[in-house]
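> call design_seq(struct)
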């Protein structure tokens, strides 16, 4: 499975089986966490065999989570760009996990923060969690906006790479599936991406920008 296939196959999953994630997969994911932390300055943590964050949370039960014992904690220094960076690198982990046959779900509020498990330094913030494991199902697709709804550029007359970028962005997970983002093609093959308003909109922006890069090919454009 490649990244494009992973984008198409991946859906949010809230119910997980008790099948343990293989040691080699945990080791590979930890290696990726270390690489992405070095690249981004984030403090992402892979937590395993920890059922309390979702098992002891009323919000988790309200969010209909079950069987979650592994997750990524998206943590970083408080800054104007933290949420977007967490979204971008978190989605890289999500798609890598999908290619390993694992399932995931971005989780904004439906969990209990276990302070003794997470290592949050002074000046850092826990942005969100991403549940991880073998899903009881593969999840379901959701209704998507049309390309015209998320682009200030006429998609019909845009270059093929731009069309493909927008198409991949529309397959990205966003908070409450609202897809509150906008792309625009500028002169010199520069692309602007703007977040809408709402909870986790900046996290969503990071996620959709990574999807756009995969679909468009980063060699064809620059972010404005």
């Amino acid at each position: 499975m490649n990244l494009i296939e992973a984008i198409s196959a991946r859906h949010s999953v809230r119910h997980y089986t008790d099948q343990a994630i293989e040691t080699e997969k945990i080791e590979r994911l930890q290696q990726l966490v270390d690489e992405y932390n070095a690249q981004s300055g984030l403090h992402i943590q892979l937590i395993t065999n920890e059922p309390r964050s979702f098992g002891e949370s009323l919000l988790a039960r309200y969010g209909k989570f079950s069987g979650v014992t592994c997750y990524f904690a998206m943590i970083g220094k408080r800054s104007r760009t933290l949420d977007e960076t967490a979204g971008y690198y978190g989605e890289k982990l999500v798609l890598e996990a999908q290619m390993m046959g694992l399932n995931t779900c971005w989780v904004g509020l439906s969990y209990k923060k276990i302070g003794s498990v997470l290592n949050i330094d002074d000046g850092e913030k826990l942005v969100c969690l991403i549940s991880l494991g073998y899903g009881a199902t593969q999840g379901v697709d959701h209704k998507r906006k049309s390309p015209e709804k998320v682009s200030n550029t006429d998609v019909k007359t845009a270059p093929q790479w731009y069309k493909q970028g927008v198409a991949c962005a529309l397959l990205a997970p966003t908070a409450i599936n609202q897809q509150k983002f906008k792309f625009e093609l500028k002169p010199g093959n520069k692309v602007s991406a703007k977040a809408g308003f709402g909870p986790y909109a900046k996290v969503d922006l990071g996620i959709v920008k990574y999807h756009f890069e995969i679909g468009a090919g980063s060699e064809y454009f620059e972010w404005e």
